[in-house]
Structure formats: structure tokens, C-alpha cells
Amino acid sequence: MTSTIPQTARAAVIAAFDQDLVLKDDQPVIRPSELAPGQCLVKIDYAGVCHSDLHVKEGGWGPVKFPRVGGHEGIGRVVAIGEHTSGSQVKIGDRVGLKWIANACLRRMRDVPNRQRTVVGYVTSHGYKVDGTFADYAVSYVDYVTPIPESLDSAAATPLLCARPMDLQGMTIYKALKETNAKVGNWVVIPGAGGGLGHLGRS
């Protein structure tokens, strides 16, 4: 399968803050031999757009190392896995999703008080700290990609990748509800309740 991986492919790249994305058809694609242990290369079939992508482009999340491929909602298939990767839950050919969290230091996260666990200082994020899903190929980590059932439509599943609580996602809706001190029986308004984050508020 690795023989079909091109040298270059398409990508939407953030070149600088407050500039339009640059559409490239010659973005270098990492070679399978260059993947670190624990990394995987995913051929992206479908990508979503989140308002956080705009925050990154406008500098709202802080410094970004340019150029940066944007995006943190994507579904595709694993086409390569880094040599010496052990204990991988995914294999080449698996359909997976890439989300905001590309990788995290869980040892350091354990030392953070519960109230502060929505901070992302110990997290490597797609489309922000590492290249994201606005590309034909994206690098992620086998421990953090999300298996996507074949029966699930990509258009329906992709927005949910912004809000998968088991992978520390959904922090936006969780923190918002927590800070309101809402009690059982209280009414709350959730704008965009059909999207990736909003649906969690209805759960």
C-alpha cells in the first residue's frame, strides 16, 4: 500500500495570520520510513471546518509555526504506520478520524487540577501545533485516531470529531455548562445544537 503514496499532494495551508488559505497541489507527503514510532499516515477522504480553524488563522490561539496545514476534523484510511510502533489499535487500511487532539502527554495531564483540565498546554493539536486535515494526507498518532465504522457516513461523522468526550474533546460544551452552575431541571440555550459540540449538550 505504501507504494501508492505520492511524493506531493493537495493541501490548504495557512501562510500567515489573517491571510486567505493557500491552496497547494505540491505539498510534500511524509515518507512512511520517516514516521516516528506511534505515528501513522492517513489518506484523508473527508474534512470538516470548525470555527477553531478560523481562530488559528486569525491568531486567536496564540503563536503558530507557519506554514501550517489547517483543519482538525477529518476521516480517511491509515496508509502507513511508523516502524517500531507497538500496541497499535489500528492497522493499515483502517478507517479512522483525526480530531483536535493529535497527541497528549497524559503523565503531565494527571498533575493538572480537574478545574484546569480544559487547557491544552500538554496537547499537540491538528491544524495548530502540527499539520491538520485540510490535505490529502495527514500525520497523526495511532493512540489518538478514532476508529470510524464503515456504516457511518463521513459527512455526518466528521463534525463529531470536534467533540468526542472520551478523548478529552467536548471541552467547550462541558466547560460552558460547568461554569453556569446549572442544576438538574434548569433551562439552558445551546446555539448550534446539531453540530459536533452542541449535540453533547443534549446528551
From TrEMBL:
<keyword id="KW-0560">Oxidoreductase</keyword>
<protein>
    <submittedName>
        <fullName>Chaperonin 10-like protein</fullName>
    </submittedName>
</protein>
<dbReference type="GO" id="GO:0046872">
    <property type="term" value="F:metal ion binding"/>
</dbReference>
<keyword id="KW-0862">Zinc</keyword>
<keyword id="KW-0520">NAD</keyword>
<dbReference type="GO" id="GO:0004022">
    <property type="term" value="F:alcohol dehydrogenase (NAD+) activity"/>
</dbReference>
<dbReference type="InterPro" id="IPR013154">
    <property type="entry name" value="ADH-like_N"/>
</dbReference>
<dbReference type="Pfam" id="PF08240">
    <property type="entry name" value="ADH_N"/>
</dbReference>
<dbReference type="InterPro" id="IPR011032">
    <property type="entry name" value="GroES-like_sf"/>
</dbReference>
<dbReference type="GO" id="GO:0005737">
    <property type="term" value="C:cytoplasm"/>
</dbReference>
<feature type="domain" description="Alcohol dehydrogenase-like N-terminal">
    <location>
        <begin position="37"/>
        <end position="150"/>
    </location>
</feature>
<keyword id="KW-0479">Metal-binding</keyword>
